[in-house]
Amino acid sequence: MLNQHSVIILYFIIRISFSLCASPISQEEKEVDSLYQNLSLFSALHPQEKVYLHFDNTSYFIRESIWYKANIVNAETLIPNVKSKVLYVDLFNQEGLLVKRNRHYIEEGMCSGSFHLPDTLNAGYYEVRAYTAWMLNFGRIPNTHLIRNILHEDGSLLSELKNVEKRTSEVPCIFSRVFPIYNAIENEEYPTKQMRTRPRINRSHPKKEKQSIEVKFYPEGGHLIEKVNNRIAFEIRDKERKVTFPKYIFIETNTNIILDTLHVIHNGWGTFDIEQRYWEVGLKNCHLTIADQNKRYEYPLPTPEKAGVALQANIDKNQIDIQIFSKNITSPLFISLQQGGKPVHYQSLGIDDHLQLSFNTDSLQQGVHQLTVFNHIGHILADRLFFVWKQEMALITLQDNNTKDKHQPYHPEEYSFKIQDKNGKSLPKTSFSVAVRDNDIEDLHYSRGNILTNLLLSSEIRGFILSPEYYFESQDSHHRKALDLLMMIQGWRRYDWQTMAGVKSFKPHYPIEQQLQVKGTVYKRRSSSGELKKWKKEVFVRCQICYPSGYTYDAVQQTKNGDFSFDVVQIYGKHPMFIQAYKTKDKIKKGLDYHNRGDAFFYDHYVCKDRVFPPQPKQYNYYETHEKELSIFTFLEQSLDQVTIKERGKIKIDFSKPDFCYDFIEAIDYMNDFGYEYNRSTFTIPFYITELISPLKGIMPGVIHICSGNDNNIEQYYPDEHLSASDKFRRREILSFKRLKNICGYYDIRDRSRFIGKTEIHSGEWIFYVNYTQRTEKEYLPDMVGDRCYFYGYAPSVQFYSPDYSSKLPDKPDYRRTLYWNPNVKTDENGNASIQFYNNSTCKKMIISAEGITKDGQPFYLNIEK
Fold first, then answer.
1. Which of 343, 276, 414 is nearest to 76 (CA)?
2. In 3D, which of 522, 601, 591, 487 has the Cα closest to residue 231?
3. Which helix (H) or strand (E) holds 8?
4. Helix spans in 55-191 (H)
């Protein structure tokens, strides 16, 4: 990776190379030279990172653990050498709520960990995400709906658009994988897979939309230009976003003259060319028609633009041919080609109406390439992604060392691996992860990729890729065309060309994290109508972290421009922390005085920590929640309701399985860091929490109810004017800061996940129940001054359980689904490695999965049945 001195040298080399070019050059060319210099330097100054997780299994049951190994690499070179040293791994439930987060120290581009799935979790489809804080600065897609509903106009922290965007954006470049989590197994009946929903008082089911067909159009290069040759890709899906294959697809005029008969090439995708005969009729007089099952659907074609650039690429195994058509363009055009953010080609095109150029794939690296047509001021007129696949990868092979009578119950198993680079040279001291699982209860999902498909393809594309391994099976014309359609339809610009070229400024939300820190900003606490400001004079901040051993990390520093940052030693687990701000170092107590107004604490200082906020939850793709052989029913149709019946047929809320459950101090701390610094009382906390985590905000009216403990008497939370003085006092006692332990939430709406990412207004009503659990008197928190919160260290290391049956067999049958997991297998001096483990009581066929990446960035994988 380039250091600062190398970047400076590179800059002058680029400058000198341009100065040696033919002269004189026009002012426009000088401006373009500056753009290209910026492109060349951006990745060196701001290298992007990628993360891939290898898992021990393809599905899980409650009470099991999700085991994973993370490979963190440079996005351009795939070399596992990155500046970031802290990895975040999040577990989201089907409701789109963060239920667990692990932090790991990155060493040599690797780390590993696990999530235990306790009984308190509901079954459903869970998403595992992984990212570094630095990754969250690239390719952010703001959620305008959430911004509109959260952005304030009161001078608070949430009055600034950048602060709201930081907390509410989607970030496609992070790693994401969805798993089915089934209900816990009773009596070891593993062939039975059940996904029972938590009972709802609101028993109404969401209305099923009428089955119809949706068609989307994607002009190649991003623009459809009038009266020039254009190519358009199309995508056909039903209302559930399932791939559909209509019997007849054609382009016809409004007078029923058929211009073209179209065919689906792959996954409901295809293309058609807009030629002269289309323009003679007029595009507004044409439409795409689908005839299927005695029904007919018509879709108007996109509206063309009067001026611009159309681009066509023909992808062959050895050559990429590009045609560029322009209309009403008066300034010269230029083209750049990037791979992994690195420019590999640049030239001037002039102002010709039709241009052609070619690239030999021998001169290109494998992976996604971005072709951009632009003018001298950096305005993009067309761009296009294409993929080059050379089958350049390291090779891992397996040798079965078992006897003929293999896979006997409780018998030892042994396998050997050999790793070679793409040239056949053995690779010593190479780390990789290995999982061996029971094939009898294997789930067949559409999301089955591997480290190769992810690092080269999935991490460069927005959205779910259906069976990504398909695109690497062959290099025949059909596979190449299918892969190119994927580029045209799901193409996402991981590398923002205008930002890299300096047309748009790059202002990262998060710095590169090289160690654990406590950092943030101190503001002057405002009144309910005042503006939030930093102190004119610097103040002192004291940070205390309490360890179980009795040791306390205690540090004090003065702010710089209102900001503070404490470097924390490498610690593990969750620890109580106190953050205090005061004006004068010699008068700590005076500076920490506060006014106790009931349960609301008002200090002179508002300490807002700069935490890493998880990206917004995503709407699951249909194929992420369905198996390959069971894809005829929706999740709700597969699910069984586990209903607890009360007297007279009433349904009781199941408090044992909330949609979320937060430590009360954690909830207060999160809202504080999010930006809700004012009126921090228990009477406003439920409103803030629902605002933070509800995808229904602004699209469906809701009602909040509150209850305490397991009390069945649910009171309407707001307003409370109808309550008597004694009831108000009782509620105040219940909600006392010192007594509250947890705050749990329950959404009483069916399939809440279907609203994630939606912006349109929906009819109906959602009900949100808040349950405060209380501490016993012995657990009351002491009086505190300052902000009580927690410091989260790295996730503690947990050892995978692997039984030893060499001397004694178990008393009960062994039904382990994951037979072996080791995230850190390492080859010897000859590139060989071996593993040993014991079989369970029933397995007859095993699946062995091994994945890793070499020190020079060659991914390798193995997935084989034995």
1. 343
2. 487
3. helix 4-19
4. 144-150, 161-168
Sheet holding 319-327, edge to edge: 308-315, 319-327, 354-360
Q: What is the pLDDT of residues 474-520, one digit of tens each?
A: 989 999 999 999 999 997 888 999 999 999 999 999 999 999 999 99
pLDDT of residue 749: 65
Whole-angstrom Cα distance, residue 265 to residue 479? Answer: 10
For helices 27-45 and 4-19, give the axis angle rounded to 10 degrees. Answer: 160
CATH number, domain containing residue 300 = 2.60.40.1930
Mark whether 594 and 707 lie in a shared domain: yes
Range of the structural domain that residue 16 is part of: 4-45
- Sole residue written with tokens 């748009």: 504
Same domain assignment for residues 124 and 153: yes
Number of structural domains in the chain:
4
Task: Please report, in angstroms and rounded to a whole number, the separation of the first and last CA atoms in the chain.
Answer: 40
Across the chain, what does the average pLDDT equal? Answer: 83
Answer whether residue 403 shows pLDDT above 50: yes
- For residues 161 and 220, membership in a common domain is answered with no
pLDDT score for 104: 98
Q: Is the pLDDT of residue 215 over 70?
A: yes
pLDDT of residue 85: 97
Residue 740 corresponds to which tokens in the numbers above? 């509250």
pLDDT at 499: 94
User: What are the structure tokens assigned to 278, written together?
Assistant: 């289309």
Amino acid at 542: R
Residues 566, 679: one domain? yes
Q: Domain check: are 220 and 151 in the same one?
A: no
- pLDDT at 830 > cutoff 80: yes
User: What pLDDT, on a 0 to 100 scale, did the predictor assign at position 696?
Assistant: 58
Domain edge (last residue) among 388, 409, 427: 388
Question: What H or E segment, with its residue span, contains residue 42?
Answer: helix 27-45
Indicate the pTM of the whole model. 0.89
| pLDDT value of position 606 | 85
- The verdict on 41 and 53 lying in the same domain is no
Burial class (CB within 10 angstroms; exposed 0-12, middle 13-18, buried 19+) of 97: buried
What is the phi/psi pair of residue 690, to 5°? -65, -30
Q: Are residues 12 and 157 in the same domain?
A: no
Over the stretch 294-344, which tens digit does the pLDDT of each residue have? 899 999 999 999 999 999 999 988 899 999 999 999 999 999 999 988 999
Residues 75-84 have a mean pLDDT of 95
d(CA 337, CA 320): 12
